[in-house]
Specification:
Number of strands: 0
Structural class: mainly alpha
Number of helices: 12
Order of helices and strands: HHHHHHHHHHHH
Protein name: Abi-like protein
Helix content: 55-70%
Largest sheet: none
């Protein structure tokens, strides 16, 4: 890459944005642009996996909540909250989703409402606030998980990652392999067969192997005294 092109990208993408990448590679602008490009590739790979996991989990939770609401209140539209379980913020999110689901004079259906609810809506239903009200009915989505926090923690981490990707923020300095494992674990816990399908198509580890070596070195933990240091590539 020519110096002129690197400087142009620094100007157009902003020095502040590329500064994070420059700091990770010791200030070299060419390497920073390469890392920026790799970060975008990794974001794209993760976005696909996150999308599959989000749709799988929200539909599974929707099904479980529908069965509970129908059985308990004779109302399949759980999002109407016939038992007055949800807090005001969730009511606001649902109201917005229902409005968006019926734009252009479309008929409201539960599927359309669920599709309009943001990713962040679902982890909140697994917080401590709903430990006694919702978790006893939602735990059936993940029969191998006994504790609510086993599901909430990974799902909240994926929500944070999704927000960073959605705002084009750096993710190269996040524990990407660990996050990939959390995503695939959640999918497998929800439906093993679907989890296998998602995992077989996930490209996160492939892209991770192509991360620039200079960045791997910068992110590696410091060597302890007397510890063997591997040869540089």
């Amino acid at each position: 890459m020519s110096e002129a092109t690197a400087q142009l990208l620094r100007q157009r993408f902003s020095a502040e944005r590329l500064g994070t990448y420059q700091a990770a590679v010791g200030g070299d602008l060419d390497q920073a642009v390469a890392l920026y490009e790799w970060n975008a590739t990794m974001s794209g790979a993760f976005w696909i996996t996150l999308g599959h996991v989000e749709v799988l989990i929200r539909n599974a939770m929707h099904q479980q909540l529908t069965e509970w609401s129908t059985r308990t209140y004779r109302e399949p539209r759980w999002y109407l909250d016939p038992g007055r379980v949800l807090d005001e913020r969730r009511h606001q999110q649902i109201a917005k989703a229902r409005e968006q689901a019926t734009r252009d004079s479309r008929q409201e259906t539960p599927g359309r409402v669920v599709a309009e609810l943001t990713f962040g809506f679902w982890p909140f239903l697994l917080t401590r606030a709903y430990d006694r009200s919702l978790w006893p009915h939602l735990r059936g989505v993940w029969p191998s998980r006994r504790l609510r926090r086993d599901v909430h923690g990974p799902l909240a981490d994926l929500h944070e990652l999704r927000n960073r990707i959605g705002h084009h923020e750096p993710i190269f300095n996040r524990p990407l392999k660990e996050l990939q494992t959390k995503a695939l674990d959640l999918a497998y816990w929800t439906c093993p067969a679907t989890g296998d399908w998602i995992g077989s198509r996930c490209q996160v580890l492939t892209v991770l192997q192509a991360r620039p070596w200079t960045v791997r070195a910068a992110l590696a933990p410091p060597q302890r005294r007397g510890q063997h240091r591997p040869a540089q590539r």
